[in-house]
Each structure stands twice: as C-alpha cells, then as structure tokens.
Amino acid sequence: MTPQKMDAVEVFAAGEKGRGLRTTKEMKTGEVVFVEASFAAVVFDSMSMHVCHSCFRRQVNPHRCAQCKFAHYCDRTCQRAAWEEHKHECAAIRQHGKAPSENVRLAARALWRMQKHKGKAFDTQLTTLDLLEDHISAMSPEDLKQLKVDVDNFQNYWQGNSRQYSTDYVSHIFGVINCNAFTLSDQRGLQAVGVGLFPNLCLVNHDCWPNCTVILNHGSQTALDSALHSQRRIELRALETIPEGAELTVSYVDFLNVSKDRQKLLKKQYYFDCKCEHCSNGIKDDLMMAVKETDGKKPSADLVKEVTDFSVEALAKIEQARIEGNFHEVVKICRECLGKQEPVLAETHLYQLQVFRVISEVLSYQQSFQEAAEYARRMVEGYRKLYHPNNAQLGMATMRAGVTHWHAGLIEAAHGLICKAYAILIITHGPHHPITKDLEAMRTQTEMELRVFKENEYVYHSMREAVLSNKHMSTRLVKSK
Ligand SMILES: [Zn+2]
Ligand SMILES: [Zn+2]
Ligand SMILES: [Zn+2]
C-alpha cells in the first residue's frame, strides 16, 4: 500500500461550495499538506507511443506490450509494475480491435480499480468517485452530446466484462472525469502527457488566490522498488502559512485573466460562479487593463480602444503564425503590436504581457538571446505585480528568463533571476523535484560565473564559450513546449 500522509486535513461542509478540505493544524509555507497517488491515470492518445504507461516518463525507444501492441513501457520493471492496472485493459483493447480515446480508457481504468477495491483504494482516501459531483444537470447541450459519445464508446469497449453498468452510472463517471481530471506532466514537469483522477485532490475547492498549489512528483526513477518506481503522485503544497482550521484551496485556472473572464472560464468548465475575494472585489483587474500615464496624462479612451482592438486581432494572427511554424512572421507581428502598445498600455496590461511572452520565447528559440532577455525581463516584472508571490507559473517564467539572460551573457541579471526562481520553486515544487534540482545546479553555475566575471571579464567570456558548447543543462530548462 502506498504511504499517504492525510493526518493534516479533514473534510468539512464548505457552504454552497459543497464539501471542502481544511487543515487540522497550522501549515508552514512550502510544507506538503498531503501526498496522493493516482486512483487511475492514462497517457494521452497523442503520447501513447512516447511515454511510459506506467511511470509517465518520456522514453525514446519504449518497450511495447506484445499482446495489445498499444501500451509502452520504459522496461520490464515498469511493465510488471503496471500489469495489475493494465491486464483488463489489455484484454479489452485486443477484443475491441483498437484502443479507445483517453477519456474512455480513464473511465474503464477507474471502474476496474473500483471493482477491485470496492471504491476505496487506500485507507487514507477521503471520498469515492460515487460521491463526487458530476454536474451533468448543469451541462450545455454540446457537453451532453459529447458525454453521450463517450458513454457509447465506453459501452462498446466494456462489452467483454462480466459486470455491466447502466448508462446513468457511466455518465456519472464521465461527469466526474470532466470536471475533476488532473493533467499529468512528464518527469521534468514541462510537457502534459496524460490525465489522472485523485479523489482527495477533488475535494480541494477553487480560489483564484489560493493558499496551496498542486505539483506532480514522479519520485525517484532510480528506486529499485517498483512500487516507488512507477508512482504517479501529486503533492499539495502550502503557498503561505495556513492557520489551523482554514479551508485549503487551489486555483483551477490561470490568474492572468480579469475576474469576469476567470468567472466565465470556471463556469464553463467547472459549473460554478466564483465568489472568491479576488473575483468579488475585482482585485488587480485595474492593473491587468492599465494604461500608460505620461506626465500624469492618460491616453484618450478612443486611442486605448483602438490599441486593444488591434492587440486582440494581432494576438490571433500571432497564434496562427505560431501554429504554422512561421516564426519570422510571429516576431514581425509582435514587434508591430508592441510598437502600438508601448506608448498606450501599462507594462502590466495582459495584452502586452502576452506579446512579451511569445516574442521572448520565439527569439530565444532563434538564439537572439539579448533581445529575448529584454522582453523576458519586462514580462517577469509585470508578472511579479500580478501573481501571488509564490505562484508556480511566476517561478517557471522567472526561471526561463534567468536562463535566457544567462545565454545572453548577462550574468548578473541571470543569477538574480535564477535565485528568485529558486526561492519560488523550493516552495511550489519542493527540494526533491527534478526541476528544482536542475535549478539548483544552475544557481551554483551562475554564482561561480558571476564571481569570475567580477574578478576578470575576459576570463569570464572565454569560460562561457566553453560552457555554451556543452548546452545540456540549460536546454533542458528552457525547452517549454
Ligand atoms: Zn516507466
Ligand atoms: Zn497490453
Ligand atoms: Zn475567483
């Protein structure tokens, strides 16, 4: 049985939000509130040949299940560890002739698991999938249509099993998946590779300014114990000191949207009206839509409208050019857009921040590090005024900006950013996460380089050339998508 720490929390009635989780003792910033292994999880359809179906690590040449020819594994250790959750699936795929979509595979894995454990896989599990909300009554006609497709596909796939389930029951499971499934990333936390269900995590309600964050931690790959080797665990970590008895919250959406847009997103995907403090009072909405003041004068409302309308169109074109891989075009439109935005919008305006993000990523991909660093710096400065100081996205963006500065040879700024990123990731990811470890190595490296730089710039530049020819560490950190 997987060790799971659940002694610091309890379920309580959280008013109109339904059930919630609260602390039973004070939690410190960065403390792990609880750890939970997945109840069921599957690799995305698009990743099924590139990611181990047991431990969810990316693999160049994974070993294929000889029977279904669908599942792939790092090696026999991972395959053996996964057999218990794969055996029914393996038979079903063979009988069905092909693997169904990820949602259907997840629902089936969840049901096989429930049959085996009568709903509860761990003593520490505080709820069952039967008890979770499905929100089917609030679904739109399109959502209901998709639900029906999933249920039909499921019934075809499930045919060979002795125990059959009613359409209503299967619909409930899909409803639960729809609003509770958690996206799983690869071992470096850089790419989404699958989706899983974590019943205890489902009990944690949303707040746009949450006191916790969820992070996936794959544990140690070198562990010989296969139970640890293949673990897909999440950690709920405290972003600040949480007093005893306080409700634990995470954010289901990115904070960088004005409150009415976050509320719209939450309503559409999770079927509730967010009444958190930040939404109710529109906190930081003004900064996200702020205009630039020059000598105490604001631009006219007409000009602001012209620039924001232009930005919306430009951002759509940028996205299109990006999808087409036309990076030259992306940079061109970004520059044109910034030319219009810079005199009119403040540097915390969401539209300007979006352009900073894209142009810094693309320029760094094109190895124009000096210019990329400048945009990355301005982006991070804007982010710091908007995000919670310990927000994970802020930490990751700061880390990328640090690496870009390092590539640009701006060692002083690079080291400063890497240190700031480390201070955030040690809280959001913890000291044992692979990204934190990479960042720690990067911090040591930049610290040493900075010392050399201060002593002798010439020596620094020749040393940097040598390090850049061995890019292994930095490219691992920069590769975001
Ligand atoms: Zn594996
Ligand atoms: Zn198989
Ligand atoms: Zn809110």
UniProtKB/TrEMBL annotation:
<dbReference type="GO" id="GO:0005634">
    <property type="term" value="C:nucleus"/>
</dbReference>
<keyword id="KW-0862">Zinc</keyword>
<dbReference type="GO" id="GO:0008270">
    <property type="term" value="F:zinc ion binding"/>
</dbReference>
<keyword id="KW-0489">Methyltransferase</keyword>
<keyword id="KW-0479">Metal-binding</keyword>
<dbReference type="Pfam" id="PF01753">
    <property type="entry name" value="zf-MYND"/>
</dbReference>
<keyword id="KW-0863">Zinc-finger</keyword>
<feature type="domain" description="SET">
    <location>
        <begin position="7"/>
        <end position="253"/>
    </location>
</feature>
<dbReference type="InterPro" id="IPR011990">
    <property type="entry name" value="TPR-like_helical_dom_sf"/>
</dbReference>
<dbReference type="GO" id="GO:0032259">
    <property type="term" value="P:methylation"/>
</dbReference>
<dbReference type="GO" id="GO:0140999">
    <property type="term" value="F:histone H3K4 trimethyltransferase activity"/>
</dbReference>
<dbReference type="InterPro" id="IPR002893">
    <property type="entry name" value="Znf_MYND"/>
</dbReference>
<dbReference type="InterPro" id="IPR050869">
    <property type="entry name" value="H3K4_H4K5_MeTrfase"/>
</dbReference>
<dbReference type="InterPro" id="IPR046341">
    <property type="entry name" value="SET_dom_sf"/>
</dbReference>
<keyword id="KW-0949">S-adenosyl-L-methionine</keyword>
<dbReference type="Pfam" id="PF00856">
    <property type="entry name" value="SET"/>
</dbReference>
<dbReference type="InterPro" id="IPR001214">
    <property type="entry name" value="SET_dom"/>
</dbReference>
<feature type="domain" description="MYND-type">
    <location>
        <begin position="52"/>
        <end position="90"/>
    </location>
</feature>
<keyword id="KW-0808">Transferase</keyword>
<protein>
    <recommendedName>
        <fullName>[histone H3]-lysine(4) N-trimethyltransferase</fullName>
        <ecNumber>2.1.1.354</ecNumber>
    </recommendedName>
</protein>
